[in-house]
Amino acid sequence: MADYEEKMKKTIDSLNAEYSTIRAGRANPHILDKITVEYYGTPTGMQGVANITVPEARTLMISPWEPSMVKEIEKAILASDLGITPNNDGKNVILNFPELTEERRKELAKDIKKKGEDAKVAIRNVRRDANEAVKKQSKAGEISEDEQKDQEETIQKVTDKYISEIEKMVDAKTNEILTV
Asked: Over the stretch 35-92, which tens digit does the pLDDT of each residue have?
């Protein structure tokens, strides 16, 4: 049972990580977490090649440790799905985040809900696997039918707990996005 609950926790952590990359009108260095830059032939995370600061509420400044990386960082940002055009002053790459339009907020809200649904499906798949394991134990005679029913109820309670946690996360992130 602990293995299955651990998998459910990992699903929640994964969803949290995905939500941290969705911007809500403010500059957040975490939106760059998924972007990799070619660094001496190796794809490297943005934090591995530069210092990222937030000089203003809607501005990110990326200061590469090597000046030659400015073009590579710009190229990686343009190739990503951020939808922001980078500027540079020769030494730094600057990202200015525009105010989110109502249309863009609604798109992001849909995306948040979709990611939440995907996480719920993952939790339900873990529940299915756990129930199958319990049924196998019951068929093998390792546990009685009463123990099987008790374990299935426990699995369902844990599943419900994580599903409601996902719903709270979706609501919180959706409210954050839709609040102007």
From this structure: 888 888 888 888 888 898 888 878 889 999 888 888 888 888 888 877 788 888 888 9
C-alpha 3: how far from chain center: 22
The beta-strand segments (E) located in 57-130 are 59-64, 87-88, 93-96
Numbers of helices and strands, H then E, in the chain? 4, 6
Task: Please answer whether residues 27 and 58 qualify as being in contact, where contact means their C-beta atoms are separated by less than 8 angstroms.
Answer: yes
If one counts every other C-beta atom within 10 angstroms of the C-beta of residue 16, the result is: 12
Task: Give how far Cα 66 sits from Cα of 24, 48, 69, 73, Å.
Answer: 30, 11, 6, 11
Tokens for 161? 């707990």
Rounded distance, CA 33 to CA 87, Å? 19
Q: Would the pLDDT of 180 be above 70? A: no
Contact 143, 17 (CB under 8 A): no
Six-digit token pair at 4?
């299955």
**Lookup: tokens for 31:** 């939106």
Q: Specify the amino acid at residue 51.
A: N
**Cα–Cα distance measured from residue 13 to residue 177, given in angstroms and rounded to the nearest whole number:** 20
